[in-house]
Amino acid sequence: MGIGLVNLLVIILGCLVAVCLTISDDSIARFNVLDYGAVGDGKHDDSDAFTRAWKDFCMVDAQIAVFHIPRDMLFLLKPVEFSGPCKARKLDFQIFGDLVMPKMEYWDDKDKGGAWIFFAFVQGLVMYGNGHVDGQGSDWWVDGGERYRPTAIIFHHCSYLQIHGLKIVNPPKIHIKISRCSNVRFSLLHLTAPESSSNTDGIDISHSINVDIQDSFIGTGDDCIAMINGCSNINIANIACGPGHGISVGSLGGHGQYDTVEGVKVTNCKFTGTSNGVRIKTVPGGSGYARNITFENIIFESVENPIIIDQFYSYAGSKNQVTPKNKAVSVSDIIYKNISGSSLSTSGITLHCSDAVPCTGIVMDQVNITLHNTRHRTNKIYSDCSNAQGHSTSTFPPVQCLQE
Ligand SMILES: *[C@@H]1O[C@H](CO)[C@@H](O)[C@H](O)[C@H]1NC(C)=O
Ligand SMILES: *[C@@H]1O[C@H](CO)[C@@H](O)[C@H](O)[C@H]1NC(C)=O
Ligand SMILES: *[C@@H]1O[C@H](CO)[C@@H](O)[C@H](O)[C@H]1NC(C)=O
């Protein structure tokens, strides 16, 4: 009897352990690209191996799926598409090794203009690691070079997306683009391209909600971060930006479009040697709004146009458009607080608003922009302002349109 009971207990315990092991086995599923034939010598095309690894990673029915790119290796990838929906509850994407794009001459025409790595319809992807991504973009930047240039990484229709610690250098065009995404968190990114490389935006956001970008370095040939259209609840904090064109809302309303951006917070950011600092740009003839936008605790160092709202923005192609004079994207409830630093141009604060749709609710508090001392020894800094309504306190240079 006694032995029977002990045996029974052992069997029950054994079963429990087996069940636990089975659960833990099932709960983490790992997919190493080397197991799919990736070579990682920087010469061999590893895209097929990555695509097949992704397929298994995405289809596995586990608690956690891990996509593993091993360290100390360099993987050459052609344009690849990683689509969901995936089955695992948590999707870890480990980039420990380095990735490299093919040089321009090796791109097929049909792939130009899109993305190098395209993620779509993935929920819960967490990308991390210290791998570098090299875009080898210099051939695309030259004058008269290719018009249709690929973006390094696009996230489309992704939710609960996180990236921590990714380094991207020299993409042909934009570093990272997110469109139709929600609940996005990026941190510790390092995005760089030379100041002279055109259209190499750091991060472009469109049609997305709840996006958090923090603790990152972005130095490029265009906007560090651009909120293009359809953005709401965007939080940008602790970004070092420069060189580049600054952090931009817009341009909104191009081609007569209805565009919207609202609920943006840009805090604790430093701009060094950028052509703009914090900028809102809208194209005449469009409609929609840019509203409820706060810039707080900002430092400028040698920035050409530190604070700028431009409702008369034109880009190549929009200049010859006939634009109705009574239409503009409205700009309202914009707060500038605790902002200081140096301007390269004499116009430290520029508010160019239209008389048809004036900017309203513009608030400046503790803003102090001084002239960078290597230029303009005799000139004075000023604010250039038209059709802006609101108020200012402790603001230098004083803004005539705003009540004190
Ligand atoms: C303004 O935007 C913030 C997010 O930055 C949001 O929490 C707040 O509710 C918005 N306020 C209004 C009045 O929409
Ligand atoms: C003003 O901004 C600077 C720079 O970001 C920051 O160090 C400082 O703490 C801020 N001051 C207040 C009162 O928040
Ligand atoms: C504005 O900044 C300049 C340069 O840093 C400084 O000398 C000046 O005292 C500041 N003014 C105010 C009102 O803080």
UniProtKB/TrEMBL annotation:
Keyword RNA-binding included in the entry's annotation: no
The protein's name: Polygalacturonase
Organism of this sequence: Stephania cephalantha
Family statement: Belongs to the glycosyl hydrolase 28 family.
Alphabetical list of PANTHER family matching this protein: PTHR31375
Compartments it resides in: Secreted, Cell wall
Superkingdom of this protein's organism: Eukaryota
Family annotation (Pfam families): Glyco_hydro_28 (PF00295)
Active-site residues, as the UniProt record annotates them: 245
Gene Ontology biological process terms from the UniProt entry: carbohydrate metabolic process; cell wall organization
Leader peptide range in chain numbering: 1-22
GO-annotated molecular function: polygalacturonase activity
Keyword terms of this UniProt record: Cell wall, Cell wall biogenesis/degradation, Glycosidase, Hydrolase, Secreted, Signal
Keyword Secreted on entry: yes
Family annotation (InterPro entries): Glyco_hydro_28 (IPR000743), PbH1 (IPR006626), Pectin_lyas_fold (IPR012334), Pectin_lyase_fold/virulence (IPR011050)
